[in-house]
Design goal:
Elements (H helix, E strand, L loop, with lengths): L2 H7 L11 H6 L12 H8 L6 H4 L4 H4 L3 H11 L9 E5 L5 H12 L3 E6 L1 H4 L9 E5 L6 H8 L2 E7 L2 H7 L2 H11 E13 L1 H8 L2 H11 L19 H13 L2 E7 L10 E8 L1
Helix pairs in contact: 6-7
Length: 277
């Protein structure tokens, strides 16, 4: 396994300008470690017939294939209303791979209403289930009013493996404000699977992290760990602390949560849990 795959999963950005929409839409071997992925970029990936479902949502197969049940189990532990009945669930940026299919099955079994918010290109690859799924095409938070008009407020909001793209392309504080506004009283939102460069540095500076890197890349090279330099477009401890304070200022409680250890990137990603009183 190459270090480029490791960087792709950590939210790597383009170094060679290869992220044209045509390349994303038609390329047979899209290098996910070296593309800038925006909302429009994901629309293009969704149309690429040469990619797997996981690749269309920006992940190498090794980071998602076979992990969907563990991911959903970890999500459900933090969003217990998913294991209840009759709730309104909003999934922002579900994509088209295995996780939203499992969430749809869970909502069918538990009589939830599931609102799926993503591009039309992604949504058309997910099933329509009568009395369960509602699809709203567009980019959040731009379409927050459309969501409220159709479903009111949400008991649960899930946004998984998406926020680092919002951080680069949009206003993260507006995103947090909109989520808190959309939550019903007593509701919970999980902004999950956030790559944290500070946590990544701490891990790869440790002996455990160095062993992990060498085993993963199948080399004897040391991980690249750098301090005291700017990291444009990267989320760090300071960003996450700011998001917590922003949610608190909007009247909600917010917590940074670890991922379950059996998740593929638990050693360098974290979840932000927001609870509205």
């Amino acid at each position: 396994m190459s270090s480029s795959s490791l960087n792709a999963a950590d939210g790597g950005h383009s170094k060679d300008g290869s992220s044209s929409l045509e390349y994303l839409q038609t390329g047979r071997d899209v290098d996910l470690a070296n593309v800038d992925l925006t909302f429009e970029g994901f629309r293009a990936l969704a149309r690429n017939p040469h990619l797997t479902a996981n690749e269309r949502i920006g992940f190498p197969e090794t980071y998602r294939n076979g992990f969907e049940e563990a991911i959903l189990r970890d999500i459900s532990a933090k969003l217990p209303a998913l294991l209840g009945t009759g709730a309104t669930i909003v999934d922002i940026g579900p994509g088209c791979a295995g996780l939203p299919h499992r969430l749809i099955d869970l909502c069918r079994e538990r009589n939830h209403r599931l609102v799926l918010v993503d591009s039309a290109e992604m949504l058309e690859q997910l099933p329509d289930v009568a009395d369960v799924t509602v699809k709203i095409a567009g980019s959040f938070p731009a379409i927050r009013d459309s969501i409220r008009d159709q479903v009111g407020q949400a008991d649960v909001i899930l946004c998984y493996s998406v926020f680092h793209y919002v951080f680069v392309e949009g206003n993260p504080f507006t995103f947090i404000d909109s989520i808190v506004e959309l939550l019903a009283d007593g509701g919970r939102a999980l902004i999950g699977d956030i790559p944290n460069i500070s946590k990544r540095r701490r891990f790869f500076a440790s002996e455990t992290g160095r062993r992990f890197h060498k085993d993963f890349t199948r080399t004897d090279t040391e991980p690249d760990v750098r301090y005291n330099e700017p990291n444009p477009g990267k989320i760090d401890d300071a960003v996450l602390t700011g998001l917590i304070q922003r949610a608190q200022a909007a009247g909600a409680d917010a917590y940074l949560m670890p991922q379950a250890p059996d998740l593929p990137m638990a050693n360098r990603r974290e979840d932000l849990l927001i609870i509205k009183a």
